[in-house]
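Two folds, back to back.
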Amino acid sequence: MKDGILSAIGHTPLVSLRRIFKETSFRLYAKLEGCNPGGSVKDRAALSILRRAIEAGEINRDTVVIESSSGNMGIGLAQACAYFGLRFICVVDPKATSQNIDIMRAYGAEVDLVTIPDARSGEFLQARIQRVQTLARSISNSFWPNQYGNLYNPIAHHQTMREIATELEGKVDLLICATSTCGTLRGCAEYLKRNRLKSRIIAVDAIGSVIFGGQQGKRLIPGHGAAVRPPLCQSELADDIVYVSDLECIVGCRTLVQKEGILAGGSSGAAVMAVSKYMDRIPAGANCVMIFPDRGERYLNTIYSDAWVVEHFGSVPALLEDVTPTWLSKRLGAD
């Protein structure tokens, strides 16, 4: 029996995927982080950061928690703050979906919307962080979790990787990990290194993201890539990087739900597409693990909405096997 909802965080299922790619010579697994009670991998980081701050005396019952989030971290913090009885303000921007905002408010969070992007970068992330810092200065006894730089974000994912390694008896040949704050990537990499497990880590980044030095560009899917290189990022932790576009995320997600019955978020679709691009380099007999950060219900009005996809991309096939290189290159060129 679990003692309270936060004790249900972690120990998410690791499932074998046999239908999405045909006739592969390697074994493919997915770590379903959407099975956390708040619906995403960010539950781990939210609890890790808040628990440490409470133990260190940085948070008391009158503290106001203030964070910037595109959705999942905000929901994870809203859930934890509701449990601990803490006031929580989440700073969001217009890319945050109405579902995510409604979920945060259902937990009792206050939502602060930033409508003007940062003047220098033209992006909302820096504007959100500046708003958090302004609020923190104006509200006494406030706490900024700073998911972008707080080491208790990656520390939470030592457990994520421990769960995977335990189930596969230490044989994790490839780990496919989407990136945003880089907390999951760094935490898993640290665990592998400290336990001397010979695993290759493939970081999945968005086309238009600057995390690994890419050129900044327009991105539509929240939580896939970043407009600012997060302080937690250490490029040497990844053995290779695969770039995936918004359109490819959509194709990956729709293929995943049709082939495997898994309704997952944009970063999960990105991981699927990364495997499709990297497949020729995966050794026969290898154990390849993808981390699926969240569930797909939060993307029903975007990734899984035909109207939204047609509006932004013209058209999109339902399955990966329907995508020809010519079709995809034409659509990417039109973005």
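---
second:
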Amino acid sequence: MKAVKVIIIAFALGGFILAGCSERNEIKAPGIGQDDSTAVSVVRPDQQINDAHIELFNGSVRTTDIKADHIDKYTKQDSTLAWGLDVHFYNSEGKKTSHLVADSGLIRESIKWMVANGNVVVVDEYGTRLETEQLFWNGSNDRVTTDKFVTIYQDGDTLMGTGFESGFPFKGFKIKKGYRGTYQNVDEIKEE
């Protein structure tokens, strides 16, 4: 009787594992050494995590607190995909500096690069709030950018425009074109 239970449990677990492998969790890439239009290889994630909560540390100091509905990690491609992101960032003293939420994101750890997509909201330590549909972070120059429409709320002011560039915190940021709205510290805004 115990052997039957073990077999049933093994089949049930196998079914859950197979059900977890869906097209959403695959990256389709051209086959190596073949015509790109005809051959496609499928790359599946090396790791998958549901209801993830990950904390990153530099020594004993927490730098990032990540919560996500689902994470897929592709080691060889240096790509980590996440859905339902809720991320808190901390400075070298462990003080929270910003909070980001987004529908999804992609992180490339080796080149220190990240993109957040869909309903992106970032709030910095001073209460400045940025809303957009896509936001990039480049760790090599510690810049945050987008070419999408942005809305920025700061100290009761609202500013809108297309395209954005800044470091953290959002001081001396640049709106790329068509900024409008009310903003007390107009000298902080640079438009191309």
